[in-house]
Amino acid sequence: MPLGRLLLRTSTVNKIVSRNAFRATKPDVSKPNMLRVGLAFGSTVFLWALLFKQHSTDVQEYKRRNGLE
Amino acid sequence: MGLVPEEAKGLPPPGIVNRNSVWLGLLGWANAVLHNSVNRRPALKAGVHRQVLSITIGWFIGYHLTKYEKYKYAKLDRDMSEYIRHHPNEFQQKERKTFAEIVEPFHAIR
Q1: What is the ipTM of this complex?
Q2: E-assigned strand segments in chain A
Q3: Fewest CB atoms less than 10 Å from the CB: which of A8, A55, B38, B41?
Q4: Are the Cβ atoms of A17 and B13 closer than 8 angstroms?
């Protein structure tokens, strides 16, 4: 059974889609907020780069300390 | 490093794919999917950027958590080995007898 179908039940938990009282327009799903999408993808790429850099630094430091290189 | 002190850098670092990373990544994805579902959006197909971001955050936190966990266990192991090394009289091998030495000779009474 597709996972999306299994999750349909949770949309009965909350039948009222609410939004910030200071916002003028209803959130429009057909027009994605490209800035937010860009920021999300950008921070994803940044975090992965940070992770890989940290990992390679750790490996180098380990090799240096134990005289393996 | 905030979590681990200097001496932990001598330990082998965890791989990019490690248990905590995978689990927290999965939790992050589940968080994004549930968030979609509760806001009455299609659970898996909406907000892929959110799903990817929360997987990444979980993976990142998991990596550092694994590093901290490895340091903690290594420290415990080292403390234990040092204690055993410094107190040999508490860890002596006991004299073991085989069953042949303990058991009395068998005389069948029929």
Answers
A1: 0.82
A2: none
A3: A8
A4: no
| SS3 annotation, B5-66 | CHHHHHCCCCCCCCHHHHHHHHHHHHHHHHHHHHCCCCCCCCCHHHHHHHHHHHHHHHHHHH
Question: In 3D, which of B45, B50, B62 has the Cα closest to residue A43?
Answer: B50
Minimal CA–CA distance to B74: which of A46, A25, A62, A13? A62
pTM of the model: 0.82
Express each pLDDT in B5-55 by its tens digit: 888 889 999 999 999 999 999 999 999 999 988 888 888 888 899 999 999
Q: How far is CA A25 from the centre of its chain?
A: 25
Q: Which candidate from A10, A58, A66 shows the least CB-CB separation from B38?
A: A10
